[in-house]
Amino acid sequence: MTRDMTKGSCAKLILGFAVPLFFGFLFQQFYNLVDTVIVGRFLGVDELASVGATGSVNFLIIGFCMGVCNGFSIPVAHKFGAGDYSGMRRYVANCVWLGIGFSVVLTAVTTCLCRSVLLWMRTPENIFENAYTYIFIILLGIPATFLYNIVSGMIRALGDSKTPVVFLVLSSFLNIGMDLLFILKLHMGVDGAAWATVIAQGLAGIGCLLFMIRRFEILHVRREEWAPNGHMMAVLCGMGVPMGLQYSITAIGSVILQSATNTLGSTAVAAVTAGGKVSCFLACPFDALGSTMATYGGQNVGAGRLDRIGPGLRASVLVGAVYSVLAFLIILFGGEWIAGLFVERTEYAIIGSVRQYLLFNTAAYLLLGLVNIVRFLIQGMGFANFAILAGVLEMTARTLVGVVLVPRLGFLGVCMGNPAAWILADAFLIPAYFIVCKTLRKRFNTQSSASS
């Protein structure tokens, strides 16, 4: 059930790995989308805005957790590519210890601070309490987030992108069912939407873990391999923390932009909420390509196959470019209909704003594709620190838009936030890729000379 990505057609391997990931991300965003539709259609605009007002905070914290877990999987992919299976299992064991520590600390800290953060963000009074309740419950689910993402990351590092998707799809349907039960039958409001998300994520993690234990004998950690290792933990944190910080630093800009959006009122917040959910849904292929390139880069660097990096990058960018055009056409001709899924058709102002937001985003999707593909490839090649610098540039762009453009241009300024962030990130990542390749070639040449 493993896949060696160091041999064979680069394009076929990337597509074969990315397609299952795409469906996984698609279903993950699908249940997030349905969650938002149910809240907006059955609870109202204010409740929809209250969920949306927490989106950037959610991305700040949960994104950090996911980034850390993705980073943890890179040394595992390196060891698998090099054929060092004992070393690989030792890294897996240390991932477990670190995951427990991270999840406990982050849950305690973030749940204590989330009310203060919402106050600082100037969350409108009419949606504040619902927003606080929703994000508090989501943060209680941080251990579930770590469980699923660590286990699925280990499995993907071995070249299997299908197994995590199966459990994610099952949890997606479960989440939708619990949404309907908690909101429509039990009348739990936005609390129900939050609990449905947490429970579904936890069950996906448990299911994936049990399946891994049963089917992946190569990952069965032996007793002596469970011992905590300071050096390995340092390597894991050296990969995971920068990737987590990249998400968080990027999200700081989103928080500032969200704060600026909050000053425009709950109608604008609701429009960004709906538009953001649709944009994330449409961006699933870029997420899949990014995760694919992390594993692809990790295995090939571990095997010393730098000659395969360039062809893999070109294949991914071509796929991303074709899809970018398709996504823009979908919004150009169907944006109003899509916006109407979230609110009543009589909410003309919200529907028009959602379409405008989506047009700005999808018009710049090629830039987003480059951000995901190149950044994750660089991380998989072992240069996770570059992700932080790219995140700083994204944060800077969104901050400037929130501080300078939104007060002057209103909602139009909000629409410019993501494209501006992607432009700055690409301006750094593309030259960084060539620097990474040059550095690795020198390193491998030095090692070859020393061994001969």
Structure notes:
- This protein has 452 residues and is mainly alpha-helical.
- The chain has one domain (10-446).
- It is built from 17 helices and no strands.
- α1 runs antiparallel to α11 and α3 packs antiparallel against α4.
- The longest helix has 36 residues, at 85-120.
Helix content: over 70%
What percentage of the residues does DSSP assign to strands (E)? Answer: under 5%
What form results from the Cα inertia axes? globular
CA-CA gap between termini: 36 Å
Number of strands: 0
How are the elements arranged and paired?
Blueprint lengths: L9 H33 L2 H8 L2 H28 L2 H36 L4 H16 L1 H16 L5 H23 L4 H26 L14 H33 L3 H17 L1 H19 L6 H31 L8 H16 L1 H16 L4 H25 L1 H5 L1 H35 L1
Helix pairs in contact: 1-2, 1-7, 1-10, 1-11, 1-12, 2-5, 2-10, 3-4, 3-6, 3-9, 3-11, 4-5, 4-6, 4-9, 5-8, 6-8, 7-8, 9-15, 10-13, 11-12, 11-14, 12-13, 12-14, 14-15, 14-17, 15-17
Please name the defining characteristics of this protein:
17 helices, about 450 residues, about 0% strand, single chain, mainly alpha, globular
